[in-house]
Amino acid sequence: MEQVIAMEIALQHPLHRRIAQHVREKYALHVAHLDDDQLLDKVTAAAERAAGFGFVWQTSVLAFVSLTFTVGPYFDQHPRIAAILGDRRVPADSRIEYLADAISAEEWDEARYASAPSPVLPRE
C-alpha cells in the first residue's frame, strides 16, 4: 500500500510543479510572498482538496487551485460553493465550470472575506 501511495505522489508531483509555475506566472501578485517550495506545498494541498471533490481533469484541478489563490484558500467552504462542488448529480469536472455562472459577485466576495486571514487585533 505504501508503494502505491508513493507512486501516486511521484506521478502527481510533475503536475503540481506545472500548476505552481502557471500560478506563479498568471497570479504573480497573489503569490509573490511565497518561495517556490511554499508555493508548491500550497498547490499540492489545494490539488488534494480538488481530488476530494472528484476532479481528475487537469483543467479542473488547475481551476480549483487558481481559485484558492485568487479568492482564498478556503473558498470551497462557502455554503453555496460547497453545495455546487459537492453535488454528486453533476459530473465532478463539470462542477468547477458551473461556478462561474452560478455564483454571484456578492457570494465570491463572501467567500473571499471568509477565506482571508483574521486580522490580529491589538490588546486593550
Please describe what this structure looks like.
- The protein has one domain.
- The protein contains seven helices and no strands.
- It is globular, with a radius of gyration of 16 Å.
Largest sheet: none
Which blocks of ≥5 consecutive residues have pLDDT under 50?
118-124
The quaternary structure here is single chain
Shape designation? globular
Radius of gyration, rounded?
16 Å
Query: Structural class of the secondary elements?
Result: mainly alpha
E-strand count: 0
SSE order, as H and E? Answer: HHHHHHH
What gap, in angstroms, lies between the N and C termini?
A: 53 Å
How many domain units?
A: 1
The number of distinct helices, counting runs of at least 4 residues, comes to: 7
Average residue-wise pLDDT = 85
- The percentage helix is over 70%
**DSSP strand content:** under 5%
Task: Give a quick summary of the entry.
The chain has 124 residues and is mainly alpha-helical. The protein has helices at 2-26, 28-31, 36-52, 58-70, 79-85, 92-102, 105-115. The chain has one domain.
Blueprint of the fold:
Blueprint: H1 2-26, H2 28-31, H3 36-52, H4 58-70, H5 79-85, H6 92-102, H7 105-115
